[in-house]
Write a sequence for this structure.
């Protein structure tokens, strides 16, 4: 079973993954949940925009040196994968590998400083159970976990995790999940069944495509909203 990498994506990469913009984040009417947060720079960088981000991840029980070692290992693994499985990533011409990995180094440095200054914003917690009250967040983001590691999140656990993300998100807010494929780029085979199950819980789902400017392809993001809430003022405006 593969162990999830502890990755250090910067805010701009999050925006690209989820079809968001800095101005959409700045306009959020409440806090943002990043689960799993990994060693991302999102919380630190979003604070500069006036957004409160709470990052949740079981790895936050680790000490700073342990986290630094995990982030270094993830960087090395990513550098290897970009060479050994280039078909999974935008071409180095469109996105130079070293520049990309340096953006992770910067994000990791921001994470380390921000976690030391604001430890209360980094909560040790594991899906499918989160220690937050109902409706705490205007927007919840979940990247590179629920579909990327199907051995950790088989269908029932995946459903439970998605329901939990919806529970902690404001009724008029939304949950965004990316990617919808595993680590070998195989699309989730039971996505239609999963969406039907979510529908039984009165959760509306949409798979929205966002452009991937690096190579002209698109990213598919799963968006979840409570079906009985028509008002969407807490959701980020469409870019
Ligand atoms: C590939 S990273 C993704 C981090 C970040 N969202 C990103 O896009 O870079 C996967 C993360 O999932 C975390 N993780 C593993 N099991 C988890 C669980 N049950 N609930 C929440 N996070 C978990 C790991 O500790 C790791 O930091």
């Amino acid at each position: 079973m593969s162990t999830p990498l502890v990755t250090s994506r910067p805010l701009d990469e999050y925006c690209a993954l989820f079809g968001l913009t800095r101005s959409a984040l700045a306009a959020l009417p409440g806090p943002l949940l990043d689960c799993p947060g990994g060693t991302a720079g999102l919380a630190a960088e979003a604070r500069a925009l006036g957004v409160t981000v709470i990052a949740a991840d079981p790895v936050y029980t680790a000490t700073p040196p342990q986290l630094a070692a995990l982030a270094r290992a993830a960087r090395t693994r990513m550098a290897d994968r970009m060479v050994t499985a280039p078909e999974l990533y935008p071409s180095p011409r469109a996105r130079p590998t070293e520049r990309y990995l340096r953006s992770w180094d910067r994000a990791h440095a921001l994470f380390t400083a921000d976690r030391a200054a604001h430890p209360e914003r980094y909560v040790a917690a594991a899906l499918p159970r989160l220690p937050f009250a109902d409706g705490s967040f205007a927007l919840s983001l979940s990247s590179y976990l629920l579909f990327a590691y199907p051995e950790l999140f088989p269908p029932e656990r995946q459903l439970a995790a998605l329901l939990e993300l919806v529970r902690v998100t404001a009724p008029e807010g939304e949950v965004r999940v990316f990617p919808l494929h595993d680590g070998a780029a195989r699309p989730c085979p039971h996505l239609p069944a999963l969406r039907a199950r979510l529908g039984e819980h009165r959760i509306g789902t949409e798979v929205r495509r966002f452009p991937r400017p690096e190579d002209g392809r698109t990213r598919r993001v799963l968006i979840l909203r409570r079906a009985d809430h028509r008002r969407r003022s807490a959701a980020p405006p469409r870019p």
About this structure: The chain has a mean pLDDT of 93. The domain at 11-226 is CATH 3.40.50.150 (Rossmann fold). The longest strand covers residues 169-178.
